[in-house]
Every structure is written in structure tokens, then in C-alpha cells.
Amino acid sequence: MKITVVGTGYVGLVSGVCFSDFGFNVICVDNNVSKIEKLKKGIIPIYEDGLEKLMVKNMRIGRLSFTSDVATGVKDADLVFIAVGTPSKPDGSADLSYIYDAVSDLAPHVNKHAILVIKSTVPVGTTRAVKKFLQDKGNDLEVAFNPEFLREGVAVEDFLRPDRIILGVESKKAEKALVRAYRPLYMLSIPIMFTDLETAELSKYAANALLAMKITFINEVANLCEKCGADVKEVAHAIGMDKRIGEQFLQAGPGYGGSCFPKDTSALSDFAKKFGVDMPLVDEVIRSNCARRDKMIKKIMDVCDNDVKNKNVSVLGVTFKANTDDMRDSPSIGIVNYLLEKGAKVKIYDPSFSKQAQDIFKNAEWSSNVYDNCNDADVIVILTDWAEFRAVNLAELRCRVRNPLLVDLRSMYTVSEVKATGFVYHSVGRPLVK
Questions:
Q1: Is residue 61 classed exposed, middle or buried when 0-12, 13-18 and 19+ CB atoms within 10 A define those classes?
Q2: Is the pLDDT of residue 161 over 70?
Q3: N or C: which end of the chain has fewer CB within 10 A?
Q4: 85 found inside a domain
């Protein structure tokens, strides 16, 4: 089986590399010539654990290649996966222009017996609309939908060992071809669910909206904990032990960000209205998450007596989550920029050394490690829960800072360990510790 993946972002690149590791011949196509040339040299454009090693391995074997020529990329393919972006428009709806551009480009060149599989996250009805779009052009290409459920930072693991595979198909031909593509996962007994196109499309949005809702819920519980004296980490653990709830996505913090939750919750609310359905719960999740960042700014400013001008602020972590260099809709953007606007001297350390972040925070200073970043700090602010921050020697940090103020927006430490070092500890969802 020959597979083509159109789009080499997180989803497309991870999918293409992992399919090649299954043993299939894979061509990844992207119209970004510069990106393709780097990929041909084994240089990946994203920070994703294990991806580069797997990519180089399969390139050397000869199962994985890259091209910016769509005609070459799709002409012999049995399966063509569309994995291009569907970003939010200003009104919150999904921008499907990249989908239709990709389909238009490949339609004249694709093998007529191939199956087109949309893997991009799209509103309900899009896959069927793409099929009609092709038919209107005289192309009867079979179209299916296969949502992705990859988490940035562990995307390779998620692809190779997924919780489930959802396949929206309309024919036995498509079903058979996609089963063959995922056959290497049979030995892991991964559940495969076949649905109609609309159900598969909505399953992706519903999953992301529910996860975003869990994050928002525990953040609101954290607000209450700070007022009533409870500990949100213990509350989250207590309710997470209930198998009906589970502990994942119950970590209080500065709110969700990234490439999926913000755009997918907005798109879900938008296209639901087009079907005449209001989703007030989803709308409130969006509103509450936006307000969360302002609340985190207020927490930092309160700690600094509402004056950060000329103060040294050490920021640890700026990517929207650990183990990625992705800055899309990261809570840090609004928080750090606010501090800079108020005259703070911001120093940043992020283990990813994100080029995106450096482009965003051009007026900040950057450090190569935690300890240098905290020298002479008036306040330390933890924004991202990178694992290496958990191993930091807090006693040494205490010796390096000017003022012992630690604002931990990820509540990474226990109250007792911070108290022992002499820091004034402001975390999320727990009482102040002096």
C-alpha cells in the first residue's frame, strides 16, 4: 500500500512518519518548499519527542520521502490523507480554505482508484461537501474521514498506541483500505469504530470540547479553593479517583491553549448555531478560559504590589504546554506581554528554546538554564509545567533571587518543600504560603 499525506504540520508529519514506520511507502506533500527541503535533510520543523529519530530511520530505509510537487506525490497513492490546517476565522468559524485548496490541487493528478481521507479537524458536513465538490468537477473519488486524537508532546506515542481509531466511511472499499492501513495496531487490540461521516466529524469536536471543559471546571474549582482554604490538587485527586471522571485534564493552571482546544471549541459553537442549536456550556468554557488569563495577570500583579516597572521577572516556561515548542494561543502570550508593557524586565527560560516564542517576545531576555534565569529576580513566575522544573534546587534559587517571591501557576511543588526554602509561595488553588 502506498500512502500520501498532504500537509506536514503536527498531524501530517507525525501521521506520515508513523505510517512509514508501520512498513508502508509514504510520501509527505507540502507546498512550503523551504520546509520540504529541510525535511529532506532530516530537519524537523517542530519539537516533538521521538519524531526526528523515527523520521530519519524511515528515510534511510527508503519508506519515507518528501515533495512539494503534489502531482508526483499523489499519482500512485492508494490512500491520500489531507492533514492541512483549519484555523479559526475572526468570527470563530473554521477556515476550510486550505482543505479545498489541497483537494483542488490534487484532484487532477490522483489515482482514480485511491481513497481521499480527511484527517484535518472539520465541521460536521465538510467531508460530504468535499465529496460533492469533487463530483461537481467530474471526479468520483471515494472520500472518508479519520479524526486524529494526538496530543502535542506525546504525538508519536498517541499514534502508535492510540485509545481508539474512528473511521467515517461510506463503502466497504474505504473500510477495507483503512483497516489495512491500521492493521499493524491489531496486535495491540486497539478498538476501531466505523461510523458515518457526520458522526466521525463530530466525535473529534465533542472530545476536545469535553477536555477543555474539564480544564475550565478545575480552574473554577481552584478559584473557590483559594477563598475557602481547600487544596485544588487534592480535590482533583479525590474526584479523579472516580473512574467516571478520571484524573487527566484536572490540573489547575492558567487555562488551555494550543492549536486545538481554542479553535475547536469556537468552531463547535459556531457550526452548532448553523444547525439551529445553542451550546451555552461550550460558550461558557470559551468565556471562562479567556477570563482565566486576566485572573493570572492579576495574581502576579498583586504579588508585585501592582507595580512591575523595572522589576526583574524570571519567567519559566512559555509554550502552551510542556514537551512542545508550540506557542499557538499560549496563555503566556497575554501574560508576558502585559508584564513587558508595564515596564518589567522579563527574562525567559523555556526548555524547547522555541523560535516561535523568541519571535513573539523580542523585548525579553533569554537564558540557557533555570538558575541563570533567576539571578537577581524580584519574582519568579512558572507558566509551563516542564518536568525539569520539578527537579530544580529551590534552595539554590533562593540564594540567587533578589526577592523570595515564587508565583507558580502550575502548582508544581508541595507547600512544605517551598516553605522550607524561605520563598513566599503563590500557587493556584491553594492558600498563600509565607
A1: exposed
A2: yes
A3: C
A4: yes
Angle between helical axes of 51-61 and 10-21 (0-180°, round to 10): 50
Do 333 and 417 belong to one domain? yes
Residues 257 and 161 in one domain: no
Q: Which of 18, 28, 225, 260 is catalytic?
A: 260
- Kindly give the residue spans of alpha helices, DSSP state H, lying in 251-317: 261-274, 280-303
Placement of cell 473557590 in the chain: 224
Give the pLDDT confidence score for residue 22 in this predicted structure.
96
What mean pLDDT is predicted for residues 179-183?
A: 95
User: Which residue intervals of 41-125 are DSSP H helices?
Assistant: 51-61, 70-74, 97-106
Q: Are residues 22 and 116 in the same domain?
A: yes
Q: Which residues of 285-320 are buried (b: 16+ CB within 10 A; e: fewer)?
A: bbebbeebbeebbebbeebbeeebeebbbbbbbbbb
CB of 221 closer than 8 Å to CB of 232: yes
This model's pTM is above 0.90? yes
pLDDT for the residue 434: 67
**Over the stretch 230-254, which tens digit does the pLDDT of each residue have?**
999 999 999 999 999 999 999 999 9
In the chain, the number of structural domains is 2
Distances (CA, A) of 276 to 7, 24, 90, 198, 222: 33, 43, 21, 16, 34
Instruction: Read off the CATH number of the domain in which 81 is found.
Output: 3.40.50.720
End-to-end CA distance of the chain: 63
Alpha-carbon span 12 to 84, nearest angstrom: 7
In a domain, 347, yes or no: yes
Dmax over CA atoms of the chain, in Å, equals: 73
Q: Is 225 designated active site?
A: no
In this predicted structure, what is the pLDDT of residue 404? 96
The rounded mean pLDDT for the chain is 95
Cβ-based neighbours of 132, under 8 Å, separated by 6 or more: none
**235 and 103 within one domain:** no
- On whether both 312 and 370 belong to a single domain, the answer is yes
Are 133 and 260 contained in the same domain?
A: no
Same domain (yes/no): 42, 136: yes
Q: Look up the domain containing 249 and give its range.
A: 229-434
CA–CA distance, 116 with 110 (Å, rounded to integer): 9
